[in-house]
Amino acid sequence: MNCQECHDFIDPYIDNELDIAAAIPFQQHLRDCSLCQQLLESRQALRALLNKLQLRFEVPDSLSRKIQSALPAATASARQRSGGRSVIPWFTIPLALAAALAVVFGLQFLNQRGMFAPSGGNALVEEVISCHVRSLLALHLLDVPSTDQHTVKPWFNGKLRYSPPVQDFTAQGFRLIGGRLDYLNGREVAALVYQRNKHIINLFVAPSESGRTEAVQSFAKDGYNVLHWDRDGFEFWAASDINKEELTAFADLEMKQA
Ligand SMILES: [Zn+2]
Q1: Which of 95, 162, 235, 236 supports an S-S bond with 208, CB 3.0-4.6 Å?
Q2: Residues 6+ away with beta carbon under 8 Å from 213
């Protein structure tokens, strides 16, 4: 089994849908491939996080009462009109659809009131976190899987109008594992991917709008840490679920090695 096949099996595996014939080569591959093992663990962590976020919610009592009170009344009046015979009234189906629509509009209403809206904060920080999470969720973590900065850096040639600085910090515990193209703040950016123990760090690099060198700013949201800094005409956004101290150590390395 190669890595691509292995990636295709990760979701069915987590959902317990792999039969034994598929599960054995899958598990064999995982034993031999730390990258796929890493992806599996990221997916499991993400699933745990999504469960924790409680994206499901209970339909408010008032809304379900409204739907239920609409249904029996309609059925009773249909029975009257059909002379007591038990028939399925022609409007039962549209009514069911209307009830479904009521639920949808109810949800939309709640959304407008901000019940699902992210709590305030820097919109760009949220976008950075979304990009980070999406890279783990979509199994599109790496376009160029390589621990060699001299492979990763030239890979961006011709794909971006700039050449991002790429450094490896394996010796300091932050291993470069590759890069990919991503989209952030309305433009294509280089995403460099680092591994810290079992954690992934995404480092987004784009030409700096200010051109200044700016010290590290830190943000935290939903269990993720995000750091931002500018240097030498580039701006950097680092996102990870590692703690702030470790991520700051990573940012310091990036700034010092420049
Ligand atoms: Zn693999």
Answers
A1: 235
A2: 230, 231, 232
Indicate the domain borders of the chain: 3-49, 121-257
**Digit-coded pLDDT (tens) for 7-47:** 889 988 888 888 878 888 898 999 999 889 988 988 888 88
CA of 2 to the centre of ligand 1 (A): 6
Q: What share of the chain is helix, strand, coil (3-state, %, to 5)?
A: 50, 20, 30
Is 3.30.450.20 the CATH number for 121-257? no
Cα 45 to middle of ligand 1, angstroms: 18
pTM, 2 dp = 0.55
CA of 7 to the centre of ligand 1 (A): 8
CA of 195 to the centre of ligand 1 (A): 15
What is the Å distance from ligand 1's center to 161 Cα?
A: 31
